[in-house]
Design a protein that fits this description.
Blueprint: H1 3-16, H2 20-34, H3 46-63, H4 67-83, H5 88-106, H6 112-139
Length: 140
């Protein structure tokens, strides 16, 4: 990721943090609207799951310029998602819900540059998670 993309993500996420509870709820509402079958994958209270999502995003945003920290953590996350029966297609749905949530929460601040930066970051994360999941499946 470029320094400009990282700056875009950090600046936009700083605007989301004050509304993180609402953003998490908006995200999961949109996710389940896009694919209602995903609801069954979440056994905990969705408010708790929303908090975990926002905490994870905060960690990712804070580590974008530290790939030596970020990549191993994201790989472990991808490996864990195998146990939740997450499929590659689910990552597309999550990405769509994330971008929609950011667009809704940021409004005019969700410029084309900001959107492109989030797409780059999410693509990196999703591809890393999918590759780690595939490695775990292949090793079994």
């Amino acid at each position: 990721m470029t320094p400009s993309q990282i700056d875009n993500i950090r600046e936009s996420f700083a605007l989301v943090r004050p509304i993180s509870d609402q953003a998490g709820t908006i995200f999961y509402d949109k996710l389940f609207e896009l694919d209602p079958t995903l609801r069954g994958m979440f056994k905990t209270d969705i408010r708790e799951q929303s908090k975990k999502l926002m905490q994870m995003l905060a960690t990712v945003v804070g580590s974008l310029d530290k790939p030596d920290v970020l990549v191993p953590a994201v790989k472990r996350l991808g490996e864990r998602h195998v146990d939740y029966q997450v499929r590659d297609s689910h990552y597309d749905t999550v990405g769509e819900a994330l971008l929609w949530t950011l667009g809704t929460g940021l409004g005019e601040a969700f410029t084309e540059d900001v959107k492109a930066s989030w797409i780059a970051a999410y693509t990196l994360l999703a591809n890393t998670m999918k590759a780690a999941a595939q490695e775990k499946i292949t090793a079994c």
